What does this fold into?
Amino acid sequence: MATKKTKKTTRKKKGVALNLQDERIPKIVAIICLLFAVYLCIAFTSYFFTWKFDQDKVLQFSADLVFQNDISVSNWLGRLGAIVSNAFFYWGFGLPSFGFILILIRLAYDLIKKNPFLKTFDFAKHTILIISFCSIILEFFMFNSAFSWGGAFGESTNIWLSNFLGRIGLLLLLFFVMLSTFMWFVNPQIELQTPAFVNQLAPKFNFFKWPSSEPISNPKTASSASGLRPRHHSETQGMGHMPKTEPKDKGSLGSKLEFKLPDVFNKKKEKPLPPSAPLIIESKAPDGKTLNLQAQPDDSPGNRTDLDITVPEKAANSDAPDLSQVSIVDPATVKPIEPLSIQEENKVEHVNFDPKLDLSSYKFPGLELLEKYEDQKFEVDRAELEANKDQIITTLLNYKIEITKIRATIGPTVTLYEIVPAAGVRISKIKNLEDDIALSLSALGIRIIAPIPGKGTIGIEVPNKKKQMVSFYEVIKSDKFINAKMDLPIALGKTISNEVFVADLAKMPHLLIAGATGQGKSVGINTIIMSILYKKHPSQVKIVMIDPKKVELFPYSALDQHFLAFLPNQDEPIVTETQKVIFTLNSLCTEMDERYDLLKKAKSRNLKEYNQKFVQRKLNPKNGHKFLPFIVLVIDEFADLIMTAGKEVEMPIARLAQLARAIGIHLIIATQRPSVNIITGTIKANFPARIAFKVTSKIDSRTILDQGGADQLIGRGDMLLSVGSNTVRLQCAFVDTPEVERVIETISQQQGFPEPFYLPEFKGEDDISNDGSSLKASDLDDMFMDAAKLVVGAQSGSTSNIQRRLQLGYNRAGRIMDQLEALGIVGPPQGSKPREVYVYTEVELGQIMDNIFGKT
It folds into this structure.
């Protein structure tokens, strides 16, 4: 019996041994490691987008978070994902926690490959050291950020080291560790070049000659063997480098002349050249001028006789030098290297600042994105023109009005008939026949211009029976738009004479648009915006869009990283809510005031002068100066804003209309109701440029244009543009929604700016006032007093410090900090620096609370 038991025990032990040595187990463990790595990767990635919403719930961790179903979190992996990611980021190492995923992947790899565990241990050890160091660095530079960049480890380590070494000492320590690590792993070879002036002066003054970086086998040939160094970039500024080929054509300014030197340079020099001494070559051009050229030999051993000739730009202006007249000047007879006369004349010009460099790869949308609408073009029938002419003459004769001349100008939708009345005919008599002429021609939209400004004729505009569509494609491709030298060119359409009409929004300087529903107002706004997109770089113009209807401008929201400007706390780049409209308009007023302060410091009168000085680097960015793009404010339905907000909208718009022109802020306001209570006298006075599509009454026409005529338009893009005292009839260019979406998609798929163009923050009257008068005791957070005591004790107004110490989420800690500012305990935010604390002791804090709320 004992023998049988022993055998069974032996079998069991063998079975256990076999199971431990089974190669399937490491593979299963490796799969578990990979799955855990993927899980952590998803949880960590989700933490970037959901930490603000989940942090309050996770920090107040309890059994309810695990077992109750009514508690929801935003993390992609649910409550467990929120707990795990918060543990690594908040309580651990912050952003470098992604390194643990690499450790798991390496462990899985070593298990599958059956690598020794020592390799895995070494990799994990080094990775954890890197994670720890990165955590300290991130927390050092992002110490006041609400996000856990370095985690609790980075924060606590930074606090201890900062107190022990000071901030500057800690910075030096971090720099020393990074430099030492780089030297240890890279081990760069550092070689010091011999300064040329030392070797030139050494024989004269018997100075110690610095060792050359290249070994010299024979001291006698040291000078020749050392070779000639290539010229440094700073020595060749203003010169062009030329390959060694035959010259082709005459050079122009900045062109590259190409030479192949004669055999005279291949002969052995009797007298060795001193190290680093360039050859001075004198050559006479065909015009008799002497060109001083500098040459450097190729350093490769097989090409010692090939010389790269560098010619100054002024030398390139003359004809190619005659190689037969090239002679070598012995450097021993030449004075030490000094700037040549031509080089003195071609000093390096200061490189201008280019605002487009941030998006240097940006490509403008192409014409292939637009529809041509070739099938919509029609020719006006000659017979139609003759019939209309006869009807006009007959109608006028019926009223005993004689004319001496009539001429027709054919447009895409309207034909202008110019008549010269006979002597003694009163103009008002013809003007009163507008309805009679319309009746005789059986046409709507007859408009009489009596007289035409600048001409001695009277115009009668008659709509064509077959109207021709003006596509945005043919307007954009015209030379008038392509070659337009304007700050903000907008291609509106075509005139009656079928010419493309391009205007400069910057000179208008604001535009008021009105028209009844379905008459082309929204298409006109799209045409203006698309003109800007096709002509201007994202760094040159920003657009603020306000759309109370919420459906007209929403496709442009994809351009938030390129062209749009909005408030930093705004969820959508297109403003739709009335309260946010008020904030946006007042924010633009703040931006206007800040820009005027910059112009005052720069002693500039307008935005163009200011940007020109900044581009020429005459303004120092350290003094707050920056490149200022144009800002275009687009409001699609202004009447709704006036009805809901009234003076709160009208006042900032009136301020912008009066003052914003000089600093590059321009307004485009559109409305369906051009009544006097919508377009007030204050607004009209500051909008000299106005566009009127077809309106329903003469009163509306006079409201928008100060004259009739808009009620006589035929619709579908037919419009009148009034700039000052001049009025032009245009057919608006048509751009369809699919075309707009294609252009927006093409731009949005390109690389944009790292962050959108944010307008200055603005707080309305509903926000907490600085004296705390609008703040009630019941409004204070439950942790307010604890946070106040913490801030006063530390004398540092840091939101992240409140988060860490009181274990609060980002939103809650931010609200408490706003309440502290409202009560005057801390100052306003100062960027990355902590807020200034105005209260020094807890006794003083209690007195403040007593004075405001009557309690401790």
Remarks:
- The chain has five domains: 21-184, 226-345, 378-463, 487-750, 777-853.
- The first strand starts at residue 239 and ends at 241.
